[in-house]
Specification:
Elements lengths: L3 E5 L18 E4 L10 E5 L16 E6 L12 H4 L4 E4 L15 H5 L8 E5 L10 H11 L2 E3 L15 H8 L2 E7 L10 H8 L3 E5 L15 E2 L6 H12 L2 H4 L12 H9 L4 H11 L6
Parallel strand pairs: 1-2, 1-3, 3-4, 4-5, 6-7, 6-8, 8-9, 9-10
Helix pairs in contact: 3-6
């Protein structure tokens, strides 16, 4: 049986791609660049790529633009003269041929669980200095009006003794009523785990980010949108009201007893299969749209 070959040309920020176990048996996914001239598709992680390494593209080979980053931080992702050389896109954008969002299908069950009793107020996990959204200035001012436990490198005031990555973060979030969910830039469809993790682990996201965030919300009234307030002081006053009124606070969890929003259901259906598996299906079918 002849296998289709998909070459991942480079790593994602220094880490090799996490290849799922259920890759179709008639597809070979490889990181070996010696396969370039015979590969059916070559995947380039664009944020790690200064220049396209090849001028020669074998006949009928597909080039795949891979990125989960915001086009605000990487403007060439929105530049047609750059992107037109690729046959497929695999990005966070919902109009991508292979959408690769930050919503993990495993969150589906967790989102329906009732929230645990809370002992703490607001937490924040921000470690990157990317700040196209103005989130650092906003958070700094918000911290003047509200006590915020900051576990990230930015404005750090709380230490984590044993850090096991996402598991530790998720466990901490579960103890807080509110979680700061500020994106590093504001762009259509750029909705990261900062939004989904609090929803999955029983905290209310305080969200600053994508203008179409409602398209990603699992239910009505499940988050606090920074855009609804004049500034950090007004937002802080509102959070304090919720913090002292259990009835008002628990209004933010009524969505858990209701069906998911239609748009969110579509997202879950998309992410039911790993993006790399969906890429395999695209390569196998060759049913692609030309750019």
């Amino acid at each position: 049986m002849t296998k289709k070959i998909i070459l991942f040309y480079n790593n994602m920020f220094g880490k090799p791609p996490d290849i799922p176990e259920d890759v179709p048996s008639n597809v070979l996914i490889t990181l070996d660049r010696d396969y370039y001239h015979v590969a059916d598709a070559v995947v380039f992680h664009l944020p790690d790529l200064d220049l396209i390494p090849y001028t020669y593209k074998p006949n009928e080979q597909l080039w795949v633009a891979w990125s989960r980053e915001s086009d605000i931080n990487y403007p060439y992702l929105n530049r047609s003269t750059y992107m037109e050389r690729f046959d497929l896109t695999m990005t966070h954008r919902l109009d991508s041929e292979v959408p690769f969002t930050y919503l993990y299908h495993k969150y589906q069950k967790a989102m329906k669980l009732p929230p645990k009793p809370k002992k703490k107020g607001i937490n924040a996990f921000i470690s990157s200095h990317y700040n196209q959204s103005g989130r650092l200035q906003y958070l700094k001012e918000l911290m003047q009006y509200s006590k915020i436990d900051s576990y990230g490198k930015i404005f750090n005031n709380c230490k984590i003794n044993i850090d096991q990555g996402p598991v530790t973060k998720e466990a901490l979030i579960a103890h807080y009523k509110f979680t700061v969910a500020f994106e590093n830039s504001i762009s259509e469809d750029y909705v990261t785990e900062k939004f989904f993790q609090p929803l999955a682990f029983g905290s209310v996201p305080i969200y600053l980010g994508a203008p179409n965030i409602d398209d990603f919300a699992p239910g009505h009234n499940c988050f606090i949108n920074v855009r609804d307030f004049k500034g950090p002081k007004e937002l802080s006053e509102y959070i304090k009201v919720l913090d002292h009124d259990d009835t008002l606070y628990h209004q933010y969890f009524k969505w858990k007893q209701q069906p998911f929003n239609p748009g969110f259901k579509r997202l879950l259906e998309i992410e039911r299969k790993h993006p790399f598996i969906r890429l395999c299906e695209k390569v196998l079918s060759r049913q692609i749209s030309s750019h």
